[in-house]
Amino acid sequence: MQFPDKRINLTTQISDIMYRHLFRFVVMTVTILTINLLNNAISKYIVSYKNHYKPIVFTLLGMAVTVVILYPLFIKLESWIKDISVKAIKSGRSVAGKYFGLLFTFLTALLILFYFYAKMWYHIDFFQVLLHGKAGG
């Protein structure tokens, strides 16, 4: 889109560049947290079998299984999160602008991840605490 005033065109370009960097940050943050959560769950499951094997064999098997599962998952997860983010941002853009859509999507993803991290680390149901004010363990 060509503007008669070059300052408006420059401002639009700067805004687009800032948005792209912010979008990449959001996608990478959610991807890293999601993969870490999945990795912890997979590791916990694998470690439950450690008494069935010798330590060296188990360590090698555990490392191999982790890579075999997480490598393709990491590749796919980044594209899935990007696709979901784009759809959510497009729907948010129609409501209140692209920055609000990105912020809303990011905060929603963080809230969901926060629930699973609290559940995994402290056995706390965050939504229960949020609704009833009880942090039962």
Radius of gyration from CA coordinates:
21 Å
Strand content: under 5%
Distance between the termini: 56 Å
How many strands? Answer: 0
Number of helices: 4
Quaternary form: single chain
Q: Main beta sheet, described?
A: none
Shape estimate: flat
Order of helices and strands: HHHH
- Given as residue ranges, the uncertain stretches (5+ residues, pLDDT < 50) are none
Molecular structure report:
The chain has 137 residues and is mainly α. Helix 1 (6-47) runs parallel beside helix 3 (98-122). Helices cover 85% and strands 0% of the residues. The protein contains four helices and no strands.
Keywords:
single chain; 137 residues; mainly alpha; 85% helix
Write the layout of secondary structure elements.
Blueprint lengths: L5 H42 L7 H42 L1 H25 L3 H7 L5
Q: What is shown here, in short?
A:
This protein is mainly α and 137 residues long.
